[in-house]
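Example record

The entry below shows one chain as it appears in the dataset: sequence first, then structure tokens.
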Amino acid sequence: METQQIKNTAYTTNTKIVNVLSDPIFEPYGRLIFPVNKSYYSGDTLGELYLTWYNNIDPNKTVEIVNYMKDHATAGETIFYDIYTEEEKAADPAKKDTGLFFFKGNPGERFIVCNAGGGFAYVGAMHDSFPHALELSKLGYHSFALIYRPGAQTACEDLARAISFIFEHAEELEVNTDCYSLWGGSAGGRMAAYIGTYGIAAFSGNDISKPGTIVMQYTGHSEYSKDDPPTYACVGTNDGIANWRTMKARLDAMKTFGIPTEFHAYEELYHGFSIGTGTIAEGWLYDAVKFWKMQM
């Protein structure tokens, strides 16, 4: 009876997280909706969710996301794609905890891969990539949120594999691969930047084009090259993890090579503000889209 009620009832802020994880509509990928390593989140219900190192978590957005997933899965749509084969996952069991959640846009539109942070220890997708992907899909863009293996090298390999997968299945997914963009916060921003600097093949992916734009949030990444893609970046001035001056210095240096950049530092915001709902940064996502469109 309880399973049937879960199946037929919309989630609310009072819904227990365990009930989302165990909802049969999400079999077999439901365990990846929240961090696989449970020590990095707390709270019994969707409204109580807390993620390590993150601030400004919006319970209403959490509920909207899981209801979006449930509604589309119930309608028979594919909302999750494996990026590794069963043979590859058998050879390396850690690859079982990877994949792409898909927030479908308009047929033939460009795509984005959103990469959550989590210190390369876990993937904070519910606050740091799912909200972005959902909002970007509302604008018509095909948006993917990557669940990757912890560790900088393996995370970048998973991102390279994900991009390669999307290119290989572009017709099936109805995506335009021209001037795609990579978005990421914290560790996820570092992943996007590494791909932007070194390319997909450098991380065991296919020899395909670099992203047309990188969108980074709150990461003190300092590496760059003269061939980096146009880059948009934002951060809070009270961020104790990613210093805004470090981020600005990187973009200023990239600008000397003629690389288009845009930088925003939001007064008194802390680390991990996501799409910025209810904060001074609210609306930054739409500014980033405008920047991306200028590169198309």
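Notes for this example: The chain has one domain: 58-295. The longest helix spans residues 152-168.
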